[in-house]
Amino acid sequence: MQKTILILNKMDTIKWGIIGCGDVAEIKSGPAFQKVANSELVAVMRRNKAKSKDFAKRHNVPFFYDSIDDIINHPDINALYIATPPSSHLEIAKQCLNAGKFVYLEKPMTMNADEAIELEKIITDNNKIVIAHYRRNLPAFQKVKELLNTNSIGKIHFTDITILQSTTNNIIAKTEDNWRLKPETSGGGYFHDIAPHQIDLMLHYFGKIKNVQGFATATKNNKVADIVNGIINFENGVQFRGIWNFIASENDVKDQCIIYGENGSITFSFYGKKVILDTTNKKEVFSFENPVHVQQPLIEETVKYFLGKAKNPCTVKDGVDVMKILDRFTTQE
Asked: Computed over its alpha carbons, how large is the radius of gyration of the chain?
C-alpha cells in the first residue's frame, strides 16, 4: 500500500480509459478528457469491438478494447470513466477501485439506493471517485448558486420544478435499444435518467433534507414511471415540489424551475440558456452558453481532485443522497 501512495504522489497527468464509449461519450464528455489540462485519453472500451475501434479512430485515441479487464489493466491508465448503463455501474466500479484506479462514474450512479450505499461502504481513504452530476459546474447553475448565496431574493420559501416532456422529447439521448426504458438496465425510465441532475442541484443549493415523499405512475404497466411527483422538506425550512411527466402533450412541453423567496424569484431551465432574477426592485436576465462538451468543467475539477489539487467536486455521498430521493419518489411503501 505504501508503494501505491508513493506513485500517486508523483502523478502529474491523469491518463483515462472510457468504459462504454457510446452516445454520452461522443460529445458531452469524451473529447473533454483530451482538452483538459494534465489529462490524456489513452483508451476506450465497448463490447462491440468494431464500434470501439471506430470511436478510437474518429477521436484519435491510441488504444481500443472490447474487454473491461483489458482496459482496466492497461498499465498507463490511472483513471476510468464508467459510461455504461446503470445496471453494470456497481460491479465495474468495484473492479476499477480494486485495481487501484480513480473513477469518474456516470449518473445515475447505480440502479438504486441500496447499490449506492454498497459502493459507498467499500470506498477506502486511498480511493477517489467522482459522480458525474456535471450541471452543478455549468455557468447558469453556478449563477443560481451565486444569487442564492448573495441573498438576492431574501429568505427562500420554496422551489418548484416542472418537467413536462412528450414521448418524442429531444432532451434525452436516444440509443439503438432504448435501454433507458428498460428498468432492468436503467433502474427506471426517463425519470431515472434526467432527474439525478435536477435533484442534485436542489441538494447542492439547499443542503440536507428532513423528509421526502413521492408518488409515481407507470401508465403502461411496464414498471417504468412516466409520471413522478415528489416533495422534499429541507432541514433549513425550504420546501420543494417537483413533477416529471414524460407522456405530456406536445402543446404542454415545459422545463422550468422557480425558486421563490421573500423578495422575489429566480427562474431557470435545466436545458435552456437563461436565468431570470425577478425581485420587488428589479428584473434581470442573465444569458449563458454551455461549453460544447458539457461535462468539461466537472472533468477539469475531477482531474484536479485526482491530482490532489482540489476537493472532490461531487462525492459518492452526494450520489447516494440523490439515489435515496429517486427511490423515495418512485417506490410506494
From this structure: 20
- CA atoms of 65 and 191, how far apart (whole Å): 31
In eight-state DSSP terms, residue 68 is H
pLDDT tens, 38-84?
999 999 999 999 999 999 999 999 999 999 999 999 999 999 999 99
What is the grid cell recorded at 252? 404542454
CA dist 251 and 256 (Å) reads 15
The reported pLDDT for the residue numbered 169 is 75
pTM above 0.85, yes or no: yes
| Amino acid sitting at position 289 | E
Total tally of structural domains belonging to the chain? 2
Q: Classify residue 193: in a domain, yes or no.
A: yes
In a shared domain, residues 78 and 177: no
Same domain (yes/no): 147, 274: yes
- Residue 327 placed within a domain: no
Domain holding 47, by residue range, is 2-132
Distance from C-alpha of 147 to C-alpha of 162, rounded to nearest angstrom: 21
* 325 located within any domain: no
Beta bridge partners of 164: 245, 254
Tell whether 95 and 156 lie within a shared domain.
no
Q: What are the C-alpha distances in Å from 5 to residues 93, 127, 263, 290?
A: 20, 11, 51, 37
Average pLDDT over the chain reads 94
Q: pLDDT digits over 125-153, tens only?
A: 999 999 999 999 999 999 999 999 999 99
Instruction: Report CA-CA distances (Å) from 102 to 12, 127, 242.
Output: 14, 7, 34
pLDDT(13) > 70 = yes
User: Is residue 95 located within the same domain as residue 172?
Assistant: no
Same domain? For 246 and 282 the reply is yes
For 217-274, write each residue's pLDDT tens digit: 998 867 899 999 999 999 999 999 999 999 999 999 999 999 999 999 999 999 999 9
Q: How many residues does the chain have?
A: 333
Q: How far is CA 132 from CA 107, 136, 186, 296, 313, in A?
A: 6, 10, 16, 11, 9
Backbone angles phi, psi at 237, to 5 degrees: 95, -10
Last residue of a domain, one of 132, 165, 199: 132
- At 207, the amino acid letter reads G
